[in-house]
Amino acid sequence: MDPHPFGPERLRALVEGAASVAGQTDLQAVLANAVDTAMELTGARYGALGVLGDHGALVDFVYRGLTPTEARAIGELPKGRGVLGLIARAGKTIRLDDLEQHPDAVGYPPNHPEMHTFLGVPIRAGNELFGNLYLTNKPSGFTAEDEALVEALALIVGAAVRTVRLQTRLRTLAVAEDRERIAMDLHDAIIQDLFAVGLSLQAQAIKVADPEVREALEANVASLDEAIAALRRFIFELPAEAPPDIRSDLREVITALTGPYDDVSVEVSYTGDLDGLTPTVCKDVRQFVSEAVSNALRHSGSDRITVRVDGLADRLVIEVTDHGTGFDPETAVWGLGLANLQSRAHRAGGTLDIDSEPGKGTTLRASLPL
């Protein structure tokens, strides 16, 4: 094969796109830029990047070409079966003129757009298969040149993923070390000085004959003791980690929960603005998703669970859907799991809705104010 199979214009586009991907410091931004760049390079109508968990199930899914309304109408994320799963199993690129004609094709869920021309490329972060990049519906079909471009982009994306992971670890270490330095400075300088002042005031109070002056000095000593205690509490409550990232948090939670369930896939998608969420909101979302997914894994009997997180202007909407046994919410006796979910939603100032029917699965929908 020609070592430079594409012309100068496309090479320039690849370099610019690669710079955009590699210049990101947030993992989700890397993934989104990778999909955007791949679509621009090839002219694909739709693009997506699926992140694989430890057991090969999707733990994150970034897509382009669909509006949030269209995505909600489809309702289901890919299961990683069929041709999409073949990319992960084979670990190599697949380029097709008609996706539907491939012997491994499994069809589409309702409201899903038809997809024909297809290009799928695995993405590796070091020796690890991180995920797969999917492109579909290029009107004239994908070419060998498209394949070479996207494979080159995939190498850059894999390197960017490794870099972001390393930067995250380094930032965490730096914050922890900075925390220790600040704590030592506060203790050695401010707290010790305040303590010395307190001892001096106590000594003076003993020598003072006037009871009112002595009482005032003792009150000042008590105030200093309270200030010292408050500073010590502040030291121990200094954040030891980098600012929260809800996508990374949920990826870790779901990967841990699905460990014992080899035959169950949990798929996650995100829409709307999820940047800049407070630690409290991130904690509420993490706990809700953890409880809901754990409940579905243990009780639904479903082999697939989907999680959606939608960032709206004034609230977050979290949906956890299984396709299992279901129940009648009007007559069911609520177990500890559902009671905990309702309690968590209410404590966060939000609401919990349950949509379930025997034999048709369950959707838990929490709306949490920002």
CATH class of the largest domain: Alpha Beta
Which residues form runs of ≥5 with pLDDT under 50? none
How many domains, in number, for the residues? 3
Give the averaged pLDDT, no decimals: 78
By CATH, the topology of the largest domain is: Beta-Lactamase
Q: H/E element string?
A: HHEEHHEEEHHHEHEEHEE
Count of alpha/pi helices: 9
Cα(first) to Cα(last) distance is 54 Å
Q: Structural class from helices and strands? A: alpha+beta
Trace the largest sheet across and list its strands: 2-1-5-4-3
β-strand percent reads 15-25%
Quantity of strands, as a count? 10
Q: Any idea what the shape is? A: elongated
- The gyration radius over C-alpha positions equals 27 Å
Give the biggest beta sheet: 5 strands, antiparallel
CATH H-level name of the largest domain... which superfamily?
Answer: GAF domain
Helix content: 40-55%
